[in-house]
Amino acid sequence: MTSLFKPVVIAVATALSLSAGSAIAQSSAIKEEQAQLKSDNAALVREKAQIKTDRKTLRADTAEGKMAAESKDAERAYKDQLAIKGEQNAIATDKPGSLQQKMDKSELRRDDKRLSADQKTLRADTSEGKMAAESADAEKVYKDSRYIKGEKKDIAADKAKLQADQGR
């Protein structure tokens, strides 16, 4: 009887020791997943606060007419308009028929062409949704919203892993 009993005792002892090891490994995996989930939730809270701040800045800059609220394309068109006004003022002060007035008029025509090209680019970029048609402030808000989407995706993956680990 003892010769039959020894292999059974050894098999039971081995099974218990292996299951205890996997239980410890499973427990640490669950703790890691819980820590990752907690970290992702904290990052989500930070990103939501950041997007709130960036949206407030965008609204304030837009209301004040700051260039940070303007896109690169819109800024080019704005500068072209300023150049045209400057040329018009220069032409008004030039002596009629002078060489300077002729040069200023040719510069005015170049500025007009540049303005129409920049406005066309702005309209095209805006309709195509290109980032060149977005202001720096709007780009920050866009990136923040992308980060938030990423964090939500990470949280969902962490929850799924945690449920899978707990189900074992």
Ordered list of secondary-structure elements with their pairings:
Blueprint: H1 2-64, H2 72-93, H3 99-128, H4 136-167
Helix pairs in contact: 1-4, 2-3
Provide structural commentary.
- The protein is 88% helix and 0% strand.
- By secondary structure, it is an all-alpha fold.
- The longest helix is centred in the first third of the chain and has 63 residues, at 2-64.
- It is rod-shaped and about 120 Å long.
Q: Globular, elongated, flat, extended or rod-shaped: what is the shape?
A: rod-shaped
Could you give the order of the helices and strands? HHHH
Helicity range: over 70%
Give the end-to-end Cα distance, rounded to a whole number of Å: 37 Å
Low-confidence stretches: none
